[in-house]
Amino acid sequence: MLIDVVDISKAYTQDDKGEPEPVVEDLSFAVAEGEFVCIIGPSGCGKSTLLNILAGFIPPDRGTIFFDGRRVNRPDPERAVVFQDATLFPWMNLRRNLELGLKAAGVAKTQLHDIVNDSLALVDLKCSQKAYPHQLSGGMKQRAALARVLALQPRLLLMDEPFSALDADTREHLQDQLLKICAQRRQTVVFVTHSVEEAAYLADRVVIMGRPPNRCYATLRIQRGLERSRTDKKQRANILRLRAALKDFCRQVPDGANAPQV
């Protein structure tokens, strides 16, 4: 397994006098190399906290995360994050935004030009390389953010609801573009979403998180035909299975209950 999450827990204190409130508790799952895993659950269930722990931005209070057999305790370019907000530097054009991350990672100047060109071409933005963020649409900004992390050639791509603020047509286009890139690069992805349809379309497997304190309540393997489809019978069945699992996990799960495979 590329990622192995072992019994992690995380709690936050609302004020100096308050008791720590668990956000994630005793959560375990694993992600294989080349697998696309979606994390789904209601607001406040700890999805973004989990992603920040996977990235090494914050430590768990208990438990361990292993990346390719090594303990995760700090950020690493091999684990790159795409956030909901593209967070591009507004005073830099697109090319400069991509170059900055590569320079910070120690990439030689002689390699910058080709790496940036290849990354922009992956997301169909090569013709916009001199544009500034304010000149880009929301979809173009998200493609730029994706190009910026792909330029680092991470082994694990962590995505925190990157398409949730986009209109439906743009969202579907970027979903298809992401899948194409993942197939080309055999990219491992952990993708946080609150959309059942998005999870059912993108994922090889879906990890469902319950309400605090959270456990991996269910893991669902997505069944599909030879090609992905948004509308075929298998896809509709996947959505129904996911919705049923979500209804189940929204009920209070008894402490110590095993995570069912659905």
How would you portray this structure in words?
Pfam families: ABC_tran. This is ABC transporter related. It comes from Desulfuromonas acetoxidans (strain DSM 684 / 11070). One of its GO terms (molecular function) is ATP hydrolysis activity. It is a single chain. With 262 residues, the protein is an alpha/beta fold. The chain folds into 2 domains: 1-78 and 154-262, P-loop containing nucleotide triphosphate hydrolases (Rossmann fold), CATH 3.40.50.300; 88-153, no CATH class. 34% of the residues lie in helices and 23% in strands. The strands form 2 sheets. It has a 6-stranded mixed β-sheet with strand order 6-7-8-3-9-10, sandwiched between helices. It is globular. Mean pLDDT is 85; it is low at 252-262.
Key descriptive features of the protein:
ABC_transporter-like_CS; four-stranded antiparallel sheet; ABC_transporter_ATP-bind; ATP binding; six-stranded mixed sheet; 262 residues; alpha/beta; single chain; ABC transporter related; 2 domains; 7 helices; 10 strands; Rossmann fold; transport
List the helices and strands and how they pair.
Elements: E1 3-12, E2 21-31, E3 36-40, H1 47-55, E4 62-67, E5 70-71, E6 79-82, H2 94-104, H3 109-122, H4 138-150, E7 156-160, H5 168-185, E8 188-193, H6 196-202, E9 205-209, E10 216-221, H7 233-250
Parallel strand pairs: 3-8, 3-9, 6-7, 7-8
Antiparallel strand pairs: 1-2, 1-4, 4-5, 9-10
InterPro entries: AAA+_ATPase, ABC_transporter-like_ATP-bd, ABC_transporter-like_CS, ABC_transporter_ATP-bind, P-loop_NTPase
Keywords: ATP-binding, Nucleotide-binding, Transport
GO molecular function, one term: ATP binding
